């Protein structure tokens, strides 16, 4: 029995601490805030109970008393409880109040710090929040008073400190903040910035002065969550704006996914706003056990298959050394990478990444009397088995997993939501088509990893672009080319 307060950071999983990740993966119950990203929620075990305490049907915050009582109730059940909070648990996040309640009720607790948006917003906007030439102090202020009481901020004292002022939860009060700063003696031309959705792919940054920042925020319809930064350090923003210079900033791309994909991660690193559309889920299949010693070749047609196969070996207690002497073939580079990650070098990868090319290459490599084990998805590419059969090569085609359309998804998208969709397999196209029923497929542009995937997309009338090679890297290059 224990409650752990975990700071989720300001955005995606990249800014979650390793300690925070470790705690989440061991949780029985997670109470999370509304600004916690989907990527972070995805690492919570499926067996864990997930409770959204950030909003109710009326879009109002869940009362703190309710949250406290939930923490107490779940902890008393002997469960490992995590209170997942945006930013840092102790920076205007009421973490102290929750610990006080737990302490009064003799509930053990721990706290895992998180990266506060007060710092991340400045960094992702290219603002060195303390710079020895112009700011020797930093002041973080909340504009959200307890019980909606009048603000009790000594603007005169803040202005005299001549440091950097960071206001959280202040979008609705941006006029009041700036007017009070000027009334307290601040130069009306003092540089200022407002950063919306800080440290996420949908971040927007607006620069101005303390006198015109309210108008800028109003004109651009800036919404919460946003951070207001006032001080001379804002002058450095354009020069140091590393995040704003990413090549896919302001592009929105749908990626059909299981939970998280290498493609999505690669695009996010380039500043793209990735819409992760959960089209299907993977279900491992239990099949009759095969004796590895009966085979001379082991064939993988996807990185998913590699992971499931080796997980199977571990679960069954099968020594990996039983693969010694068995040659391994992979359909392409991405699959080969997963094999390499296991410390094994693939013996054959075709230059053209598809089942037919894989089969044709194996014909000249598999010796007479040898047998091939194909470990792949149920209902896989028939070209592979057809060509091997025609060549008289003995094989067992063993389905070790199945892709099932994820009908539990509540995600909805419209044509206005994205610039491109990206597909890494025909099944991703099929899953997308079954779930995105409100979209006219003739009006969307898609990037596909190969001709088979492209054919599936063309069948729905989509405008198709194919990457030069069947690799994630090549897909990203094609997207960059189309976005230029």
Describe this protein with a few key phrases.
484 residues, alpha/beta, Cobalt-precorrin-4 Transmethylase, domain 1, Methyltransferase, Cobalt-precorrin-4 Transmethylase, Domain 2, Rossmann fold, 4 domains, five-stranded parallel β-sheet, five-stranded mixed β-sheet, 17 helices, 31% helix, 22% strand
Topology:
Blueprint: E1 2-7, H1 18-25, E2 29-32, H2 38-41, E3 49-52, H3 64-76, E4 80-85, H4 95-104, E5 109-112, H5 117-124, E6 138-142, H6 155-161, E7 164-168, H7 174-183, E8 191-196, E9 204-209, H8 213-219, E10 226-230, H9 237-240, E11 252-257, H10 262-269, E12 273-278, E13 280-284, E14 297-300, H11 303-316, E15 327-330, H12 333-341, H13 355-363, E16 371-377, H14 382-390, E17 394-405, E18 420-423, H15 426-435, E19 445-448, H16 451-458, E20 463-466, H17 472-483
Parallel strand pairs: 1-4, 1-5, 2-3, 2-4, 6-7, 11-12, 11-18, 14-15, 14-16, 16-17, 18-19, 19-20
Antiparallel strand pairs: 7-10, 8-9, 8-10, 13-17
Helix pairs in contact: 10-17, 11-12, 13-14, 15-16
Q: Class of the largest domain, according to the CATH hierarchy? A: Alpha Beta
CATH architecture of the largest domain: 2-Layer Sandwich
How many beta-strand segments?
20
SS-based structural class?
alpha/beta
Query: Tally the helices: what do you get?
Result: 17
The domain tally reads 4
CATH homologous superfamily classification of the largest domain: Tetrapyrrole methylase, C-terminal domain
Distance between the termini: 54 Å
The amount of helix comes to 25-40%
What percent of residues are in strands? 15-25%
